[in-house]
Design a protein that fits this description.
The chain has 12 helices and 11 strands. It is of the alpha/beta class and 311 residues long. Helix 1 crosses helix 2 and helix 1 crosses helix 3.
Length: 311
């Protein structure tokens, strides 16, 4: 429903990059430039100052961006209210999702949600827990799904799904063949592949190892990687051993990786919805929380075969 020229202007003004705006709008850059020139002609003012290296908003552009955002929000509210009259959910929902959830859990939940609510457009940004919470506090997303305890104050959590961090090695690694569980202290003597600082996975792992009497500073962290997929690939290549979410290790069924149990140490965590302190999410965000929490109960434990074999 949003006026197309206003939408083009709003996205270009937020990105301050016509090429990026064109990509988001599925337009060519000249088409973006034309729409903005036409809007400037109608308004009789320049909205952007352009130079060879950058663009920036003029005072008129800054004022217009404020109005464009308010107009877009009103269109969105109108769409939702009309949908409520017909008992059909409509509108857009912006989610910020930490990396592991976005790669291995969210697609299954979103598939069902989109089938249940076809009138809802879901926008997803992903990153580590710290980055997602920054987006939440900045107001650029309505709801977050995170993997680790938040460092950001003023955040409320609601449980979504149980998770466990497991130790993975290549199938030909000596640890894959041993019958006894690994003493966690043995991790100190081997190259370890970890998620980057700021990742919920890394925070949980370091806290669990510290509780087991290990100093995270004594670990031989040979590489810090920004995704679980990168860790898995590096483990397969023999660059070290890794600690990743149970939801990421379905490859064990294909014989690429092996899971190694650790003696007296199970690294458990809760995947959670996160939102600002105050009332629980309402509207589309509330619908998504309710649906996802129910859908999560039907997700099969990805390690059930391994657990059965380990007994």
């Amino acid at each position: 429903m949003e006026d197309f020229r206003l939408r083009v202007f709003r996205i270009a003004a937020e990105k301050l990059n016509f090429t990026q705006a064109a990509g988001l709008l599925h337009l060519t850059q000249p088409a973006v430039t034309l729409q903005i020139k036409n809007l400037e002609a109608d308004l009789g003012v320049r909205l952007f100052d352009r130079s060879a290296r950058s663009i920036r908003l003029t005072p008129a552009g800054e004022m217009m961006l404020d109005y464009a955002r308010r107009i877009a929000a009103l269109y969105e509210e109108a769409s939702r209210k009309v949908g409520e009259l017909s008992h059909e959910a409509r509108g857009s929902l912006s989610l910020g999702v930490s990396t592991t959830i976005s790669q291995y859990v969210l697609p299954w939940v979103l598939a069902g949600f989109r089938h249940e609510y076809p009138g809802v457009r879901v926008k997803v940004i992903s990153g580590n827990t710290e980055a997602v919470l920054q987006s939440l506090t900045a107001g650029s997303i309505e709801l977050a799904m995170i993997e680790g305890p938040p460092r950001t104050p003023g955040i409320k959590l609601q449980k979504f799904l149980d998770d466990e961090i497991v130790l993975i090695v290549p199938c030909e690694h000596p640890w894959a063949l041993r019958r006894q569980a690994l003493n966690p202290a043995e991790l100190l003597n081997t190259p370890l592949l970890m998620r980057e600082p700021g990742s919920g996975t890394r925070d949980v792992v370091e806290a669990a190892l510290q509780s087991a009497g290990l100093n995270p500073g004594d670990l031989q962290v040979s590489m810090s990687l920004d995704s679980t997929e990168a860790i898995k690939s590096a483990v397969e290549a023999g660059l070290g051993v890794g600690l990743v979410s149970q939801w990421a290790v379905r490859e064990t069924n294909r014989g690429l990786l092996a899971i190694v149990p650790m003696a007296n140490l199970r690294i458990r965590r809760t995947l959670a919805f996160a939102y600002p302190q105050g009332p629980s999410p309402k509207g589309l965000a509330g619908r998504f929380v309710s649906y996802a929490a129910t859908a999560a109960q039907g997700l099969a434990d990805p390690l059930h075969v391994f657990r059965k074999r380990a007994r």
